[in-house]
Specification:
This protein has 50 residues and is an all-alpha fold. The chain has two helices and no strands. It has one domain. The radius of gyration is 11 Å and the shape is globular.
Length: 50
Amino acid sequence: MPNDSWEYTTAGEIARFVPMFEMNREGFSAAINTLRGRYIYWEHPYQWME
């Protein structure tokens, strides 16, 4: 599910506390980088969190 569909869902609430990624090539790459300790945190990772 694309992250812009997460607003007002359980996934959206979880995304506020832990890194979550879309199920696509970029999302898998970001998840692997997070497991490798290369996660870059930003205050509002998704447009709907602003």
